[in-house]
Write a structure and sequence with these properties.
The chain is mainly α. 68% of the residues lie in helices and 3% in strands. The chain contains ten helices and two strands; from the N terminus they run ααααββαααααα. Strands 1-2 form a two-stranded antiparallel sheet. The two termini are 22 Å apart.
Length: 231
């Protein structure tokens, strides 16, 4: 933990002179998403508050915000911990993804679509795979689906799915073979991008639903073997 807190102190500059609980929660959310604080890690108030140079009240408010987002959990007389998802949590995350992401594709309207950011995420994943950085491949996959949701042009949907994708990252950090988990996404993301670029919206929706359903089965299978049915 001492090493993490030393690195976290580097983020103090991000707070600027207008330190707020929201800014602190943004920093911690990013660190959790990157696996800096893995699932199950206890977050010490004094250490994190000192590293970021913020008051205990500010930090507690940031913890409260992240608890509301289901990234942290408060355990009585023990403290605040990065949440460990259950298998049921993972299944619910994917049900939400299927509902929202397929609805976004269904509602795209007539082509052409603005797919530049989606294509960038595809290439990001390929670069990471060439470097055998499978954690980065997983990050690129999240970026791909975040940009897919952004095609709806809805700030509310973006906000909803930001939390869903952050929770999904908690599951990814528990996996012991990231290549096995993430490598199949490279081909599926490329295919989905090409289908949308060709303007075949209905076909893209069908592909996406099958893709997410298969991904659910793969992630749940891996996750169940790592944490069991009840984390």
């Amino acid at each position: 933990m001492a090493e993490q807190l030393t690195d976290l102190a580097d983020d103090r500059a991000l707070l600027g002179r207008t330190s707020t609980a929201e800014r602190v929660s943004d920093i911690l959310r990013s660190r959790i998403a990157d696996g800096f604080f893995p699932p199950g890690t206890r977050l010490p108030e004094d250490g994190i508050g000192g590293a970021l140079g913020v008051s205990r009240n500010t930090l507690r408010e940031a913890f409260r915000l992240l608890t509301h987002e289901r990234l942290l959990v408060h355990e009585l007389n023990r403290g605040v911990f990065v949440r460990v998802l259950t298998v049921e949590d993972v299944e619910d995350i994917y049900r939400t993804r299927i509902l929202v992401e397929c609805a976004v594709v269904r509602g795209l309207g007539e082509p052409p679509y603005d797919l530049e950011a989606l294509g960038t995420a595809v290439e990001e994943g390929r670069r990471a795979a060439r470097g055998a950085d499978w954690k980065a491949v997983g990050t690129a996959n999240i970026h791909f689906h975040r940009e897919l949701v952004a095609l709806a042009g809805s700030a509310r949907t973006d906000e909803l799915m930001r939390g869903v994708f952050a929770e999904l990252r908690l599951a990814f950090h528990v996996v012991d073979d990231p290549r096995r988990l993430h490598e199949p996404y490279l081909k599926r993301n490329h295919l989905l991008h090409e289908t949308l670029r060709a303007g075949r919206r209905a076909e893209a929706e069908t592909e996406l639903e099958a893709y997410l359903t298969e991904s659910l089965e793969r992630v749940v299978d891996v996750y169940r073997r790592r944490v069991g049915d009840h984390a």
